[in-house]
């Protein structure tokens, strides 16, 4: 399921941002540039508001910023990686290197929850995180995700 959402050209292998807000801005702009959204400011505000509830820095060098919003028509997933690590107010206090931005429309609640759960399950696996950190190309990332995702039930 994840590999269908995470297609090539939906990845940023070298984030330029140096802080949490910068990451969210860069990811929002990527969504806009890829035609996922028409209003980058609205998505950015939604992501910032989501972060105020509780950080999406889930630990183990991973963040899963996500939002349900009507600025998108369907589910989208973007993978991004920081070369230097970013202070993201993670639950474990460690810097974040791996980012999965997941957005979807408000009406997609059931699929949205399932996909969030699958991403969370996937990044708990140490060998998966290690492989993603070592990935040099979009093909490498795609292969790691596809080979380790849970098969649909």
Automatic annotation (TrEMBL):
Biological processes, Gene Ontology terms: phosphoenolpyruvate-dependent sugar phosphotransferase system
Molecular-function annotations in GO: protein-N(PI)-phosphohistidine-sugar phosphotransferase activity
One CC-aspect GO term: cytoplasm
Keywords in alphabetical order: Phosphoprotein, Phosphotransferase system, Sugar transport, Transferase, Transport
Residues passing through the membrane, by range: none
Subcellular location: Cytoplasm
Keyword Heme: no
Residue ranges constituting the PTS EIIA type-2 domain according to the UniProt record: 4-148
InterPro entries: PTrfase/Anion_transptr, PTS_EIIA_type-2_dom, PTS_IIA_fruc, PTS_SugarTrans_NitroReg
Protein name per Swiss-Prot or TrEMBL: PTS fructose transporter subunit IIA
């Amino acid at each position: 399921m994840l590999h269908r959402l995470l297609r090539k050209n939906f990845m940023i292998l070298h984030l330029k941002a140096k802080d949490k807000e910068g990451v969210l801005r860069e990811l929002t702009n990527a969504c806009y540039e890829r035609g996922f959204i028409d209003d980058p400011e609205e998505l950015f505000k939604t992501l910032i508001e989501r972060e105020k509830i509780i950080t999406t820095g889930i630990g183990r060098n991973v963040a899963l910023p996500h939002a349900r919003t009507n600025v998108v028509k369907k589910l989208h997933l973007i993978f991004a990686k920081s070369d230097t690590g970013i202070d993201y107010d993670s639950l474990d206090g460690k810097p974040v290197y791996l980012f999965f931005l997941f957005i979807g429309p408000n009406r997609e609640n059931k699929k949205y929850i399932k996909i969030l759960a699958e991403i969370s399950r996937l990044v708990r696996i140490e060998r998966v995180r290690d492989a993603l950190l070592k990935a040099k190309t979009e093909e490498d990332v795609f292969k790691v995700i596809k080979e380790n995702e849970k098969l649909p039930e």
